[in-house]
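step: validate -> pass
step: tokenize input -> pass
step: predict -> running
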Amino acid sequence: MGVYSIGVDLGGTNLRIAAYSPEDGLKDTIQLSTRRPEGRDAVLLDLCEAVESLTARFGGSERCRGIGVATPGPMELPEGRLLNPPNLPGWENFQLRQELEKCLKRRVIVENDANVAALAECQLGQGSEFKVDSLCMLTLGTGVGSGIILNGHIWHGMNGMAGESGHVSVNPDGPLCACGTRGCLELSASATGIIRMAHERIALHPDSDLGDLFRTNPEFTASDLFDLAKHGDRDSIQIFETLGQAVGRGLSSLVNSLNLPLYVIGGGVASAWEMFAPTMLDVLAQGSSLYRLTDPRRKLEGRMANAETHVVPAKLGSNSGILGACLIPFTVDVPVAMLPEIAAR
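step: predict -> pass
step: emit ->
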């Protein structure tokens, strides 16, 4: 009998549920809109019905290893209790794992979405490419998330909050973040931060190309700014250079602290890699003596002979979240999810 898992990628906009096996990869995927305006119960109903649909399809001939759920943080682990997730308003202090187990009558493992993306990149993406089992991943999306994989396992810290690198201050004189810290990485390296910087420039130079973009498309995105930068717009280029400086400073701290062989940059903003990576790597080299000693771009006599620190774009793209959720049941030491269905609570 084959073994498969169910993965759930619960986001503020989209809800993806998939069946996965190590032999076949993603066997089937269900994608839905997250009915967030209709409340938690509507979202949980959609989620549970999709999981039951997949287990009914594959359960006759294969055995379910378990159900992994990736969701935005912050959260308390392993309890799976959401604290105050900004992408899921109204879910404060919600016992997500407990409620899903009550509905599905199966053991559920809840994880931070940045952690599972890092796990997927380690096992199926750049980690496999570089043949390493430890890495740190930054996801530059609506916010900035991060995950740390050590020796093939997610590093959680004492209560699941390890790796909150998006809220490391890279500019002490910068704007105040919602977390209470000034100049957080998230404020300069997220899609939200990019749009904020663009509006600041438009206010100063309304007759610029950015101003024209705003007048024709008031809801412009980070992708629109990337297109402008590729066509030589100086304001847009400088925004991505500011992003590169911020990520370079953040990476300097991570490289000096973690000394890992691989750092992966993912999320939607990473598609603009060519616009911010040169600045990012230059700032990283300035800020981290450890990176200078292990920079693969340097000649051998200028660095350590048997160590390299690689900084690369993510390989799995938008599939990292759902793949990581599917992988979670295969990483637990004791396959408790393969036990018979748990009793209703």
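step: describe -> The mean pLDDT is 90.
step: cleanup -> pass
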